[in-house]
Specification:
Blueprint (H helix, E strand, L loop, with lengths): L2 H21 L3 H12 L5 H8 L8 H27 L26 H15 L3 E2 L5 E3 H4 L18 E7 L2 E5 L5 H9 L4 E10 L11 E10 L5 H16 L4 E9 L2 E11 L2 E11 L1 H6 L9 E7 H9 L12 H4 L3
Helix pairs in contact: 1-2, 1-3, 1-4, 2-4, 5-10
The structure holds 3,4-dihydroxyphenylalanine.
């Protein structure tokens, strides 16, 4: 056998073994390649080694050196392939992971009760065709007050009763919105009636936290603008909402009240478990509000309402202190 022939055989061995090991997709394929190429009894390398003795004495040192180089290179590729597959825990043929061991239990979380409440309100109101829309939490005075017919001397505009933010925009001072009624204005400014929307989100007032107050809380705002809308529609919608949300036949009561952006205005009470609870305010949208957004009050009318999310959530679950919603105590939150 000539040296050239010997080297050529080594080269093709190297190519075949290298290709097989690189493409072996699982531990079984690596083992098949190992036996075929490096097997101690009938592997291809063993066969090549046997032909070494048939070489001339002067060729032997070079041939032996080349043989050892190829042998080491393939041994390295073999251990690489083994390491690669062992590192892949998705391969059940490797025993890197014992799949019979019990897993590490995960603590299953859940949605925050306020988030659950918001989703439920959206779902119930959606059945009546009310679309859920969002508005900004940093507002200007037009949307938080002026277009809602709240004049500058109104106590709700007292700077001490609002979170004004330091930077004034070119359009005037900015504040954290104190009510979601802002979204009524934002929607009416850019859409034409008919409209049925709810907007649920955070509002901010500098109140001292106690069992029924928190400087940040959530409101549901509802608005329906459609020809022929009356207080009877308002009451039906609120009653449907209350019955669906609290379960059972919940009665709804209106008491005369005043809000700058509705006329007439009412306080909304709901009876549940034998008790009347005040849930929010409502009324027919004031003509001044319709005019402020460019609607003609002689042509369109509608109702609006505002409910406190924490209040209806507390009612539904019997939570006595709304601060519990924000303490992030897992023992409390786990109950919902
Ligand atoms: N924005 C009122 C508040 O924060 C709640 C409210 C009352 C909203 C009457 C309304 C409404 O849409 O018609 O106290």
């Amino acid at each position: 056998m000539s040296l050239e022939r010997f080297v050529a055989e080594l080269d093709s061995f190297y190519l075949d073994a290298g290709t097989s090991l690189a493409s072996a997709g699982d531990a079984a394929a690596v083992e098949v390649a190992r036996v075929e190429f490096l097997g101690a009894r009938s592997g291809r390398l063993k066969g090549i080694q046997k032909t070494l003795g048939a070489l001339g004495a002067s060729d032997k040192p070079a041939a032996g050196k080349r043989f050892n180089e190829v042998k080491e290179a393939i041994a390295a590729l073999l251990s690489n392939a083994q390491a690669r597959l062992i590192a892949d825990p998705s391969d059940p043929a490797t025993d890197a992971i014992d799949i019979s061991l019990p897993g590490i239990p995960l603590r299953i979380g859940r949605l925050h009760p306020i988030t659950q409440t918001i989703r439920r309100v959206e779902e119930i109101m959606g059945r009546l065709g009310f679309e859920s829309v969002d508005g900004p939490e940093v507002e200007d005075e037009r949307h938080n007050f002026e277009a809602l017919n709240i004049p500058p001397e109104h106590p709700a505009r007292d700077p001490l009763d609002n979170f004004y933010v330091a930077t004034a925009s070119r359009g005037g001072p900015l504040l954290l919105r104190s009510q979601t009624s802002t979204v009524q204005i934002r929607v009416m400014e850019c859409r034409k009636p008919p409209l049925r929307i709810v907007s649920i989100g955070r509002v901010y007032r500098p109140d001292t936290a106690d069992a029924t107050h928190y400087p940040m809380f959530h409101q549901v705002e509802g608005l329906m603008i459609e020809p022929g809308t009356t207080m009877a529609h308002l009451k039906s919608v609120l009653r449907y909402f209350a019955s669906s949300f609290l379960g059972g036949d919940v009665r709804v009561r209106f008491r005369p009240s005043f809000f700058p952006f509705t006329e007439p205005s009412v306080e909304v009470d709901m009876e549940w478990g034998g008790r009347w609870i005040e849930m929010g305010g409502a009324g027919m949208v004031d003509p001044a509000v319709l005019t402020a957004v460019g609607y003609d009050p002689n042509e369109v009318s509608g109702f609006a309402f505002g409910l406190g999310v924490e209040r209806i959530a507390a009612r539904r679950w019997g939570v006595a202190d709304i601060r519990d919603f924000y303490r992030n105590d897992i023992r409390f939150l786990e109950q919902f």
